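Consider this record:
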Amino acid sequence: MLIPLVKRYNKKDFDIVYVHRNDVLLMHSNYGQINYQHKDGTILNPLSTFEEHERFLTQDKFARVDRCYVVNMDRVEFFDEERQRVFFDPEPVGKTAPSAPVSFSRMDTVKDVRRGIANGNPVQSGSAHFSR
């Protein structure tokens, strides 16, 4: 089994590495921080920050669509261009339909998703236009 861990170079620079569990000598906690010691002596940490999780997930068809949202692009079914939200149901109904906001600067991330307009009639992504 491979474990995704963080190899830190400094506070801002890091890599996500996959370590086989048999290569981990031990795991310990030091002042609340979990550390894994690799058989080569390297100390690694579990994913903990938003940026670390984002880098891990974007390796596998996830994409950042807003400052605080990373979504599974394989599960996105519908983009409401007027509300600037992606939905995970092909025909979302009600306020409780699972969704995530899409920032204007990240609209190109969802360009290939089926889009909707205000009256509820979906249009294909090639013929959709942005209103701004």
